[in-house]
Amino acid sequence: MPEQHGFIFPRTATGASSILPPPPWHYSGDLLTIEYRTDPDRVVELLPDPMEPADDPGAVAIVWADWQSCGDDFAELDDPVRAQYREVFFVIRGRYEGEHRSRCAYIWVDKDFAMVRGHFQGYPKKLGSIWMTRPVAYGRAGPRLEVGGRFGATLAANDRRLAEATFTITGTSDTGGFVNSHAMVHTRFMPSIEADGTAALHELVTMKSTDVDAGPIFTGDADLALFDVPGEEFGLLEPREMIGGFYQQLGVTFPGGETLARMT
Description:
The chain has helices spanning about 40-45, 110-120, and strands at about 25-35, 50-55, 60-70, 85-95, 100-110, 125, 130, 150-155, 160-175, 185-190, 200-215, 215-225, 240-260. The protein is mainly beta and about 260 residues long.
């Protein structure tokens, strides 16, 4: 029988059908981040063992991201339907081995390849419909990246609106937000095929990044609304106090990751 190839499924004799190329993966995109505080108990219950609560444990970030990504041969850029996608994710914080770490609690994405890549990395991705106002450099059909620029962002899934936000630039920031500023801890989990309560895969992992290339950070006033819908629990992270909003254009490369702990 011929050997099968491909970084991930479907694996074939040539490997050309794999939904993902092998790392490194290159990303360029626009990120709108809104930080706020919620009930700390709702954050702590989302931290896996052996993570512990962070300082300011109720701090949360919700991030809208409009990405273009590709593998190391840049083939997707000639076929942009395989490169472009949007996502929305909630970030919380905890401590791992005494150091603050960020963690993605919930995330939605609008392309299958990005969802599979997220599952490989340990992101709990679901499919959703995501929209963001795009900045423009010419004309009147969009905001400028300058004071007064106003942006909107929405998230929907399964025919229901989940979240909506607005952001207005008031200035620039040297540091940006603090919730999504740490190395991230993800969980890779797959139940065993026997469905007997055991896990075939249960790991804590982190991704490594290189070639970070970032533009100026714009800060401003933000409004956020979350909506309760069946089959979702992100509404437990409801805003109690707004911290602020940030907008940044950036690029980064992920060559792979590191296993922090194997739980099985």
